[in-house]
Design goal:
This protein is of the alpha+beta class. It has helices at residues 44-60, 116-130, 137-147; strands at 18-29, 40-41, 77-82, 85-90, 93-107. The chain starts with 17 loop residues before the first strand and ends in a 14-residue tail after the last helix.
Amino acid sequence: MTTPAPTPIDYRTAPPKLTAVATGWQAWWEDVDTWDGFTLYADLDTAKHHAAVAYISDEHSWHADDDPADEAPDVVLTWAFAHSRWHLLADGKGTGIQLYRHSTYATATPHRRLTELEHHAAWHAIEGAAGEEGADPDTVLNAVLAALDIDPPAAPEAPNA
């Protein structure tokens, strides 16, 4: 018996690199087609809260923003961890709602070369911005991005005071 020769890897056509991974908590409600439970939450506490509110709203027709005189349903909600998932229990019985870790991936944009026109525009943007009074790297970068018709990332929002 002969061992087959290894297949060479064509490094020139390799798949794009992974650039971003977002891992969160996926909520799922078993056998309930009408519930929008396929939402990815950033943290476990938020996922648990929203899933519990959705369960109470759907199963008991009670909403927190309804008339305050309406009493909330007399049900005790708890969470139990089993089989790598969190399970919502109502009065100790399974509800069919589960939370589990879920990751989404984004791939890198394909590499491309600047056209001569783009290179010329960027070069002149750098030359012009660098000569301005008080020019800093941010000013130069923004001038280049504007010359290439590329939007910079959105500025992060200031935290609430």
